[in-house]
Write a structure and sequence with these properties.
269 residues; 2 domains; 35% helix; Rossmann fold; 10 strands; binds adenosine-5'-diphosphate; 10 helices; disordered C terminus; alpha/beta; single chain; binds magnesium ion
Length: 269
Amino acid sequence: MSVVEDPVLLRAEGLNVSFGGLEVLRRVSLEVRAGSVLGVIGPNGAGKTTLFNTICGFVRPDAGTITFGGQELSRPRPEQLTRHGIARTLQGLGLFAGLTVLDNVVAGATHRSRTGFVGALLASPWADRDERRLAARAREVLRELGIEGDANRICAGLPYGVRKRVALARALVSEPRLLMLDEPAAGLSASEVGELADIVRGLVPDTTVMLVEHHMDFVMNLCDRLVVLDFGEVIARGTPAQVRADPQVQRAYLGDPVAAVAGEGGANA
Ligand SMILES: Nc1ncnc2c1ncn2[C@@H]1O[C@H](COP(=O)(O)OP(=O)(O)O)[C@@H](O)[C@H]1O
Ligand SMILES: [Mg+2]
């Protein structure tokens, strides 16, 4: 008898989150199918980042469950998250500005090292070799993202587009099963947004991707499925075409600069 793998990698059910009495997520349920790209969209303040933070264990939900690979995720600590196979980028950059590109990327992979920090401190026989293996893996990811030449530069002086790639490299170096990207295209030029779409497309199906983004062309062309949040509630879900045609979605976006969701190209093209 063959084992049928669950086609759903991550499942959130009935998530409620409130901050000081304000309900920020209300009964949010969603599924991320293995090997696909799920986009989470919605106006500013809709709760998208809070949803990511809840999945990653930074925020404790008042109610609801999250399962990953069929197992319940109960508030993983940050270093456990990568061990589970989940990596994320933060809205903005979240890099160590004073460190080199390579050191920033290596920092994202520490858990993969057999000996880790403790081993390095004790200078165990493994530590050197692990360190070298990690640096080699980090360089490989930098090469894949086309920024290997910047490996030894300090992050602070680099163009924003390069730093965004460093943040992506740092998440990728742990070889996550699920990659969560919070506004990966924010602040990028039109050509950089196109390149990012190609990079993300190249990651699936080996890596499953969940992303928040405001660039509607990017989202509509890249994502297999979308979930739309508005005031903390899921107001629509489905393929990009289904979501684009949804009257409630169009209403939620009315007057918002991303009203292009109403039609491909749309008035903003
Ligand atoms: N740590 C926090 N404490 C209090 N309120 C918060 C906190 N984080 C987010 N919020 C509020 O929760 C709502 C959703 O925020 P957020 O998840 O950042 O939305 P989005 O990412 O969709 O723009 C907003 O009203 C925001 O002000
Ligand atoms: Mg946000």
